[in-house]
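seq/struct pair 1
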Amino acid sequence: MSELSKEQVIDYLHQHPDFLVQHPELLAQLELQQQAQGATSLVHIQQRQLREHNTLLKSQIDAMSKHASQNELVYRLFSQCHRQLWNHDDFDTLANNLRNIICSSEDVNDCKLVKYNPKYDELIAHRLTHSGHYLGRINQQERELLFSEDTQSVAIYLIGDTKHPIAILAFGSNNVNHFEPAQDNLFVLDFINALHLRLQKLA
């Protein structure tokens, strides 16, 4: 009889998960040697694997909970911003009120709504041509256009398009990891569309 391969044994045990339960005399003989922990039974190995799996699940749940809390905060902030759009007919007043609302978030240190100016052309070409928005870090020259020296990460949105820019809405954070490319933009982009329509009417 030919010797079974490791893969064949593994496949068999996968197909017959109760095999060791039905053969307790074999299970009693299976003590696996661990270099760092001494003799460890299959039960102990399974317990350790379950603990590791539970730890991973807990970490995933905590991350999902944190993400949900962040989304709720963003939703509330931009609900307030939506209301501001129709309360004011003056660009500067609107920009100031948006700044006060957005900067009430502890992770956002600055917010700027600025009318388009040719001095922003290089920033638009470099960061906003592809999708109309950019999240992440910027270089020193770009930072000086909109933010303070303490700003570490930003979210920048073009109002209008690259051929007919109207304004730029930008958020800055002193937290280097607060704005990142993979961040969800759903609530913000919805507000950007509404802001675009409002600024067209104010023009």
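seq/struct pair 2
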Amino acid sequence: MNAKPQQTPPRVPPLTRLTVAETALRLLNEGGLDKLTLRAIAQELDVKAPALYWHFKNKQELIDEMATEMFRRMVADPEASGPEAPTTPWREQMLVANRGLRRALLSYRDGARVFTGSRFNGTEHAERSEAHLRALLAQGFELPQAVRAMATAFSYTLGFVIEEQGVHPVPGERREGYDVAERGERLADYPLAAAAGTYLFEAYDEHFEEGLQIVLDGIAAHYGTR
């Protein structure tokens, strides 16, 4: 009788910071940030949880790496990168950058919460910031003004998406309690607050665009930059 050929065991990718972060991002989309644990990630990678501590001291370090990987993927997207030539109008650069940021955050469940307060690793973010700051300075901003303008627009986008994902954790999914019609009935004694629900919890694309234009108008007015 011929011996049965031995089956080659499946190849397990080496455990690195990147493989852990990629696995964490995949699990993030399945259960959200609150359910993401080092134990769950270790189980998915078929390793013991202590093995992860060779790469990350705690969950926050892992979240920092997740945010960094999200950023790397975002800047690799040509639509998210946008025009960075010094001659490109600063408003156009900031519109493209913040639209790309929102799109990137929305591609992950709790994506904005991962970004909030995270410390990026590496230098990719510095390269991106350098290009945008140079463009702003070339168009009349002083460095403190350029930094505050970028930070203000970034904070608007991040905060907007946190609220948006509080209602829609992922596109097409609405959390219970955010039905606009039900809210209107519950707040019937407060007609203006009831009517506001349509503008707060619907048409997020339109809401974001208008808010971003308001932010940029404010930057232009405050610094006298056209």
